[in-house]
Amino acid sequence: MMRNLGHTATVLFLLMLVAINSFGQFPGQIVNGLKSGDARAVSAYFNENVELVVLDRENVCSQAQGEQILRDFFSKNKPSDFTITHQGGEEAPYAIGKMQTSGGNFRIYLVLKSIGNSPKIVQLRIERD
After folding, report:
1. How would you write the chain as a 3-class SS string?
2. What predicted TM-score, i.e. pTM, was given to this entire model?
3. Where are the domains of the chain?
4. Do 121 and 109 contact (CB within 8 A), yes or no?
5. Class of domain 26-128
6. Strand pairing partners for 99?
7. For 9-19, how does the pLDDT look when each residue is reduced to its tens digit (9 = 90+)?
């Protein structure tokens, strides 16, 4: 009887960890796009209008304009790795990550919003680390 209780507690604990970790996770396509420098994959998640801050340039732009700005950044700074270091938020999930590139290291800030049951990037910031 005690053994079954131990198994049940372990299973419940593991299920709880899975639920916590899957809540608020960022779509893999965004992470992979940032990791590989694929502006098209990242911009596919841009909101109709996205606040884009790349180094010293701040823009509120369309999805197409945002893709071009991001493509320009990636052409000058070829990513070799990107990892999310912190994420949270319920209404507007956010993530902070580190990107290693040929042009140095950068800190990435992302804010998502659910629009039509689909996650959309409403803000993307790229700053020198």
Report:
1. CHHHHHHHHHHHHHHHHHHHHHCCCCCHHHHHHHHHCCHHHHHCCEEEEEEEEECCEEEEEEHHHHHHHHHHHHHHCCEEEEEEEEEECCCCCEEEEEEEECCEEEEEEEEEEEECCEEEEEEEEEEEC
2. 0.79
3. 26-128
4. no
5. alpha beta
6. 82, 106
7. 454 444 343 33
